[in-house]
Amino acid sequence: MTVTTPHSAYWEGVRDGLPFILVVAPFALLFGVVATEAGLNVWETLAFSVVVIAGAAQFTALQLMQENAPTVIVLASALAVNLRMAMYSASLTPHLGATPLWQRALAAYVMVDQSYACSILAYERNHDWTPRQKMAFYFGAVTPVIPVWYAMTVAGALIGSSMPAGLALDFAVPITFIAMIAPALRTLAHKAAAIASVVLALGFAFVPFNLGLIIAGIGGMMVGAQVELWMERRVRA
Known about the structure:
The chain is mostly helical and 237 residues long. The chain has helices at residues 6-17, 21-37, 42-52, 55-66, 71-81, 84-96, 101-109, 113-125, 131-142, 145-161, 172-181, 188-203, 211-236. The relative contact order is 0.15.
């Protein structure tokens, strides 16, 4: 029987996190390009990625900043987009809650969708791991991702700053999100939530500072939850 040490758990995490570079690299590159098109310089763009490390929230905040939205609206919108991180944290607490505070603080800073997905699956496979082993795997999973996020953000900013001013790439952002979301629409509840959010987003497009998107997001979740309950009742019946 192979004994898993924190060291080997770390390298197992690195191995599981490596494939996500294929997703993170182009997304960070796109953010760097769009950020410079919006008027940020290379260092400001890098600082944005270093401080936030959340692609969807960064794109949301960037768009609102371009529209001169109040700071509180920018922060609230970015927070709303990133609320899933709170659910991730609650899910990881039984596994990592016994580790030192500084490790949990660092884990919270580098938490991304990829690190959570890798880690929670690994914890389900290895029920005998200690909190130390679990944290080592977690940090291993983000090791390939975070440096690539920083580096490709800089690369995108450098590319974007050298592009002609008339070459707009704003269309790339919605296309990217469509490509990310479409494969996740597997159940009727998912599809109902997506359709409802699209309809509400269009219906509330007049609301200033893109607050209609928050309304659409909340409405979509409500519709999805109701459809899920309806499906469960049908199965029981």
